[in-house]
Specification:
This protein has 293 residues and is an alpha+beta fold. The chain is built from 10 helices and 6 strands; from the N terminus they run E-E-H-H-H-H-H-H-H-H-H-E-E-E-E-H. It has 2 domains: 229 residues, Growth Hormone, Chain: A (Up-down Bundle); 49 residues, no CATH class. Helix content is 59%, strand content 8%. A 4-stranded antiparallel beta sheet has the order 3-4-5-6. A two-stranded antiparallel sheet has the order 1-2.
Amino acid sequence: MALTLRRPSAEASFRVAEDSSVIASPKVLWRSKKPLLLLFATGFTSMGMEVVWIRQLTPYLGTMVYAFASILGTYLASTFLGSRIYRLWSRKHNQEPMLVWALLGLSAFLPLLAANPQFHWFKLTRLAIGLIPFSCILGFVTPMLVDRWSEGDPDRAGHAYANNIVGCILDPLLSGFVLLPLISERWVLFVLALPWLAIGLLPGWSPTSEFVPAVPRWQRASSYAIVLAAVALVFTGKAFEDQFGSTSKVLRDNTATSIATGEGMQKNLLINGVGITSLGPAIKMMAPGVSTF
């Protein structure tokens, strides 16, 4: 979530083609609701994914308050970095690279690599791989969309920012109370990344697609390849619970993911990947219901 306001110069207007003298005025740009829809999607995606990140990375970062602080700090710092990159980039460019949308979709699945139990990475490495690319790209496109919609008008910038805030409010509720209790983290990421994968496949949904020439073939082919790689990550990535095999029992709700694993006297109970208890004589005597997990 980032806000910037830039009043474009005459040279920064969008041209229909290189040999055309028709310049899209701000009024023409305002007719399209794409920037507003995408701003809602950026807020919707970012805050919802933060809920998923906490669920995914708890087994590696622990349950201390510093774990949440590290996730939040990494997200905010990366978003700020992306917005600063946009500010420098916007001084000389008008149209975003079309591949940025497909890369945003691909980076949404990098937390699957960061939370993969097959890789024995340091905690900071998991944070960097899982959060920085997505947050940085999101920090780039969000102020860009605000500029596309506002064209220097502060009232319209406030309207754009409000759309982004509404998405930030709604998605944590959807992710935490609806999606995570029903499906695994990988599929929640897939749902949240759908807008960016769709733009990667259909560049016409880009907010500037109406005012620029056709997308070059190499960019379109690269975008398709990136989307394909993103989908491959969904199906090939390993979640924390996958390491326990088919003998484990996984239950989810809006609070946590519970994993019961093991056989005989070697049973263990994990909440969000953190060991809570194991089956033994003391546990057998505590309560009849405890020994049945």
